[in-house]
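User: I'm putting together notes for a lab meeting next week and I want to include a structural view of one of the chains we've been expressing. I don't have a solved structure, so I'd like a prediction I can at least talk through. The sequence is below, exactly as it appears in our construct file.
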Amino acid sequence: MGRSTGFDRSDVLERAMDLFWRNGFSETSLRQLEEATGLNPGSIYYHFHNKSQMFQAVLIHYIENRLLSRLAFYMNRHAPLESLRLFFTTSYRQEDVKNYRCGCLLVLALTESHRNTLAPILKEALGRVEQGFSMALEAGGCDPSTSRMLLDSYIALQLSGHLLSSRKNLDQYVKEIFARLATT
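Assistant: Thanks for the context. Below is the predicted structure for the 184-residue chain, given as structure tokens.
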């Protein structure tokens, strides 16, 4: 019989995600992860092997449970282009400051020094986001091949939000993105 985990993996990943999101990978220590997750060092190593693999698990958890689910949420409840606009703006418009973490964790992972080890995860996730954009564009009567431009714009928006964090400037940028989209 297998060893019982004795913890809620999703809860541990959420707690670690908060820490990685606020501090970044390199500025997050194992001690901080222990405190945030309630796991002892042995449990972290047993279940995740090391900090890098824990970050990978957190990133996959984020992609599945936050990023792609947010895109699906808007696509199931709004017109296609409005769903994309909401996906863009809700990435930086958070009423609950406690839950705001300076942009998209996927995009922040692109800036991490160890991104090469994350490359397969990042490539697959970016492809899935682009595919979602393509489907929404096609459903909205736009050229689905502009999904790459839209993905690039999303990444630029996230990086701008991380550096500037002015909602007014970010709103203007989103408005320009969707104005360009209307002309393609």
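A couple of points you could mention at the meeting. The chain has a mean pLDDT of 88. Residues 59-182 form a domain with the Tetracycline Repressor; domain 2 fold (CATH 1.10.357).

User: Perfect, that's what I needed.
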